[in-house]
Amino acid sequence: MIEDKSFKSTKISDLGEFGLIDHLTKQFEISNATTIKGVGDDAAVLDFKNQQVVLTTDLLIEGVHFDLSYMPLKHLGYKAAIVNISDVCAMNATPTQITVSIAISNRFPLEALEELYSGIKFACEKYGVDLVGGDTTSSTKGMLISVTALGVLNTDEVVYRSGAKPNDLLVVTGDLGASYLGLQVLEREKQVFLVNPQSQPDLTAYDYLVERHLKPEARKDIIEMLKVLEVQPTSMIDISDGLSSEILHLCKQSNVGCKLYEDKIPLDQQVISTCEEFNINSTTVALSGGEDYELLFTIAQEDFDKIKGNPSMTIIGFMTEAKDGVNLITRANQQIELTAQGWNSFGE
Ligand code: ADP
Ligand code: MG
Predict the structure, then answer these.
(1) Is 80 touching ligand 1 by the criterion CB < 6 Å?
(2) Which fold has domain 169-337?
(3) Most CB contacts within 10 A, which of 113, 124, 191, 227?
């Protein structure tokens, strides 16, 4: 893709490191009052007054976390920011700043980095986040991106994974499994393309799935909605590795069990039809798929009325005593113990 002839090709060495940093960051604007000094000094200066700060970081490696043969660089930049913004949201915090560090080999021209940064800028604008720093270095092979994100909250607003209580309701936002299926569709098209480079993929039947994979969103809107609804979740996590694995995290850290109802798991119509086509079980996809970046949280029973009927949230189960275990109740009303089939970065 970066070999695409439509790309002008400017060698990064022509700009030098400082010219490059300046070129990539100059069109970013500061929008948060908490940012006193962004890019351009030895360190950024931030002032959060009496608020608490959450901080999170992720490292993405070419060939492990992304494949540039079907992941456009603009989308990669966007996604690298989103996965961190999602982690900030999962603490019930408002994202405010990010830093972006990159290592790149000489196979990337300036125009490729411009694409990457246009995606990062798009995420910054959409989520109201300031780019306040980073680091730029070379790699012998491939690309690495590390994003660090900060967010703010009031002391009493923080939500940990560990606060769920028996009888709390288990809630998930949006729908699940689409990102994983989008990746399967893209992988399949890549194989077709390798055999026949003239082939033109028609992905219209899978547009939602592919978009969910290439351009995921962080649920900052849910954090804002929960404040308006005056709902303080008792525990929360974002779904990066699959529903099953995230439920097990909440249960383990909260020392509770759970009953998850298969028929309640929210699925998009395209997920259902594509699962039929690929002959895979949609529940397995939702449980193990990963990279949906939806929020999974628990609320006290008293808060049920505040969220019932909300189209962005689905109650999928409830928490139990730890001794009752972590269970899926199937459509056939069978009880099956959940295992961490969630996507494992050291696995396949
Ligand atoms: P230092 O030598 O102190 O590490 P740098 O020259 O790497 O300083 O960075 C200069 C400024 O540019 C700093 O504000 C740094 O945070 C910022 N910066 C460096 N690389 C990037 C990048 N890839 N994206 C955003 N900001 C960057
Ligand atoms: Mg540096």
Answers:
(1) no
(2) Phosphoribosyl-aminoimidazole Synthetase; Chain A, domain 2 (3.90.650)
(3) 124
